[in-house]
């Protein structure tokens, strides 16, 4: 049995003299590793007489714990020294330009813009209307008479009068349409009606926008998007329609 005090003094000096974490880890392996000096001494306990084992067992455990404590303390000290060195030697250049992450358009809006550019080259302009429409512009003017299936509650979002307050473009109808119900538009076709009522031919527009219906399936959600076009001119023929579609 080796002198435990000699082992303690030996590794205490090696631990204190370790200049970096790699050197310290080598000391740990040499002392406490599977084949380390203290570990080998622990294996000899089985060969000792009971009275010797009672003395050497606690002594070896105490040495093992003491060396482990010294190693952890030295490790913390070396890590602190490494951090202090890094803080002194590493600097951050605050004059470097900052990379600004810019936002992007929603994919739907990107598609709308691409469509608008294509049709603009053909002479179309973009027309828009309110998402909240009155019964006349959404149904009656488009030949959806009372009793038409499209007017059913399961197909259309009907709104109460107070639900339209504060909505942009959602003024209650006046004049002969003031008693009509308000709905979330079921198509962008009301834009055609509003354009024809406010402008004279020739008319050449596309009407992109949000639309709303009380259904949800593989092709629709309660809110989806449409783009439709309208051309009114005395000289317009089916050839113009075909040309627009082919160009698109």
From TrEMBL:
<dbReference type="GO" id="GO:0000049">
    <property type="term" value="F:tRNA binding"/>
</dbReference>
<dbReference type="GO" id="GO:0004826">
    <property type="term" value="F:phenylalanine-tRNA ligase activity"/>
</dbReference>
<dbReference type="InterPro" id="IPR006195">
    <property type="entry name" value="aa-tRNA-synth_II"/>
</dbReference>
<dbReference type="Pfam" id="PF02912">
    <property type="entry name" value="Phe_tRNA-synt_N"/>
</dbReference>
<dbReference type="InterPro" id="IPR010978">
    <property type="entry name" value="tRNA-bd_arm"/>
</dbReference>
<feature type="domain" description="Aminoacyl-transfer RNA synthetases class-II family profile">
    <location>
        <begin position="118"/>
        <end position="248"/>
    </location>
</feature>
<keyword id="KW-0648">Protein biosynthesis</keyword>
<keyword id="KW-0547">Nucleotide-binding</keyword>
<feature type="coiled-coil region">
    <location>
        <begin position="60"/>
        <end position="93"/>
    </location>
</feature>
<dbReference type="InterPro" id="IPR045864">
    <property type="entry name" value="aa-tRNA-synth_II/BPL/LPL"/>
</dbReference>
<dbReference type="GO" id="GO:0006432">
    <property type="term" value="P:phenylalanyl-tRNA aminoacylation"/>
</dbReference>
<dbReference type="InterPro" id="IPR002319">
    <property type="entry name" value="Phenylalanyl-tRNA_Synthase"/>
</dbReference>
<keyword id="KW-0175">Coiled coil</keyword>
<protein>
    <recommendedName>
        <fullName>phenylalanine--tRNA ligase</fullName>
        <ecNumber>6.1.1.20</ecNumber>
    </recommendedName>
</protein>
<keyword id="KW-0030">Aminoacyl-tRNA synthetase</keyword>
<keyword id="KW-0067">ATP-binding</keyword>
<dbReference type="GO" id="GO:0005524">
    <property type="term" value="F:ATP binding"/>
</dbReference>
<dbReference type="InterPro" id="IPR004188">
    <property type="entry name" value="Phe-tRNA_ligase_II_N"/>
</dbReference>
<dbReference type="GO" id="GO:0005737">
    <property type="term" value="C:cytoplasm"/>
</dbReference>
<keyword id="KW-0436">Ligase</keyword>
<dbReference type="Pfam" id="PF01409">
    <property type="entry name" value="tRNA-synt_2d"/>
</dbReference>
